[in-house]
Amino acid sequence: MLLPMLAEWLCANNGKDARATRMVRDMHLFLIPTMNPDGFAKRRRKNRGGKDLNRNFPDRIKHAGTDLRLRQKGTQPETWAVMQFMLGKTWAGAANFHEGAEVAVYPWDGYASGTLSAAGGASDAPDSATFKFLAQTYADAHTTMSTSGGEV
């Protein structure tokens, strides 16, 4: 509900609140409340085609050397639409909210082995130190994550 609430706040406060007015006037904001409307309506992870869209984006490690601008076999329509939308813009920043486990993730936070195990070697992004710092700062300030004992 965070994105619909943000949209409502922006609309209600544009022209009344300096921060809201500046965001509406000076930023290009694209809010996608859900990319899985079928799953959202049925309260499940999978779309109408029975695919988990959270696991449907191509993995840059598994598909190394592949032009990801070309549609891969098995890519769901919702996934493809979001990919095309993202490729059609120049981005200065992005945020992604995901229901489920309370974790802070960052770009390329997987491992070269394709597993979630560090044994395969980290797959760092050029700005990994910054991403890890931001994720750790957020997690440390979050009530539940700060007491979970995990680390970035």
Highlighted features:
152 residues; 34% helix; 5 helices; globular; single chain; mainly alpha
Please state the structural category. mainly alpha
How many helices in DSSP terms? 5
Main β-sheet, in a few words?
A: none
Rough shape?
Answer: globular
Oligomer: single chain
Q: What is the gyration radius calculated from CA atoms?
A: 18 Å
Beta-strand level of the residues, as a percent range?
A: under 5%
Instruction: Count the E strands.
Output: 0
The first-to-last residue Cα distance is 26 Å
**Average pLDDT score:** 81
pLDDT below 50 for ≥5 consecutive residues: which ranges? none
In helices, the fraction of residues equals 25-40%
- Succession of helices and strands: HHHHH
Give an overview in words:
The protein is mainly alpha-helical and 152 residues long. The chain has helices spanning 2-13, 18-26, 37-42, 77-87, 128-141. Among the domains are: 46-99, no CATH class; 101-152, no CATH class. 34% of the residues lie in helices and 0% in strands. The two termini are 26 Å apart. The mean pLDDT is 81.
